[in-house]
Amino acid sequence: MVIRVYIASSSGSVVIKKRQQAIVGFLEANRITFEEVDITMLEDQRLWMYRNIPEDKHPEKGNPFPPQIFNGEQYCGDYEDFFQSKENNTVFSFLGLSSQPSVKQSES
To answer: Which of 71, 79, 67 is nearest to 97 (CA)?
Structure first.
């Protein structure tokens, strides 16, 4: 399974941008293999993300904001869930990983 972080590259919100950077930076620093999915560029991926976030994680109005994290098709959580798992030192189980994953190969 691949960890996917759904982001919005053209978000006007500083909060969203900082949250996306925090998640991506943590994954990179810990050499956790992941892919970014830009929902502002890929309409089908945006719709997939909205459909696969549990109802209890949807806001009262509108759609959930990025960043959202999935392991394959399994929803892991949003920034708040990620932050809580980081504080509790349970990020690997939050991401659905049993242990330290293989090192992300550096680009040549």
So the answer is: 71
